[in-house]
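Weekly modeling sync, notes
Attendees: S.R. (lead), two postdocs, one rotation student

Agenda item 3: backlog of single-chain predictions. S.R. asked that every request posted to the team notebook include the full sequence so nobody has to chase files. The rotation student volunteered to paste the first one in as an example of the format we agreed on. Action items at the bottom.

Example entry:
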Amino acid sequence: MEATTSKKLSNRSRFNLGSIASMLVAVVVGAFIVWRVGLVITTKHYPMSLWGLQLANGLVLGGVYALLALGYTLVYGILFMINFAHGDVMMIGAYAGFFSLQWLKSQGLVETQPVFSLLFVLFVGMIVAMIVGIVLERLAYRPLRHAPRLVPLISAIGASIFLEQAALRIFGPKLRVYTKPPLIQGGWDIGSTGIFVTRTGVLIMVMSLLMMIGLYVMIQYTKVGKAMRAVAEDQQTAALMGVDVDQVIVFTFALGSFLGGAAGVMLGFHNGQVDFMVGFIPGLKAFTAAVLGGIGNVPGAMFGGVFLGLAESLGPTALGIPSQYKDVIAFSLLVLVLIFRPTGLLGEILSEKKA
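Predicted structure, as returned to the notebook:
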């Protein structure tokens, strides 16, 4: 009995020492960042237009990351697995949008029907990505649903490589250039501030916000949303209560891929190009955003995406380092959150069984 008590006290003291060490490191890192930002602001004297432009870019990136992060967090909340092929599903949606845009151009509809063309390209990209997500679930994930957690993870990585290589062999390695419809070309100057906001940026921000609000309302207040929450809580009990678990899981993959396809098309319009690797880095960034906000937490994925986009856009300027270091900032945030706040900034939402 005394040996057990002393062992518990020893473990508790180690835990306290570890917590104190982590807090000290967090304080040091935070103090360094504050010092560096203050130094840059007082010595560099960047114009307000630069900060405004970076803020707008951060919101655009954040909208794309948030849409992709929702796909990660939906699947994780129900199956407790990371779908690492999600970024490549976005890539397939971007390709589908590109080829549908080329077809519209050949028919002369891009100039004469700009609104229809834009909606059609977005719809095709979302539908094709949704179909790919459903096929992936059926072939790569469903047979492994009751396997150890590492097995579906390996399958997801394999699916990611398969989609990238399939796109390379089918579409070739060259960049495909998105031609913006006249409706979203150009942008606006905000007063005399010198800040220029592109129409594609506004489109991404508005569409992302509407989709995220729609998803949240659907999950909270619709019958299928309640079924998704029930399956996420306990699959066996949900099945006993009459919920078709397989159908809910397929719907979850379809919904996440649907949003990913929208992100792919909008990113294609914004960046003006697409290739077979276009989904790899955004997919990793979206996973980072999901972890930052709290994996399995839908509002957390939204918050994490916007937070990561702003940090990636404003971070290099605020720290006085080249913009090429934006990826370093993004993944450093992932490491710091995993060390000091493993459940994410807003916390994970998992059932007791999964936790």
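Discussion: group reviewed the output briefly. Residues 46-340 form a domain with the ABC transporter involved in vitamin B12 uptake, BtuC fold (CATH 1.10.3470).
Action items: rotation student to repeat for the remaining queue; S.R. to check formatting next week.
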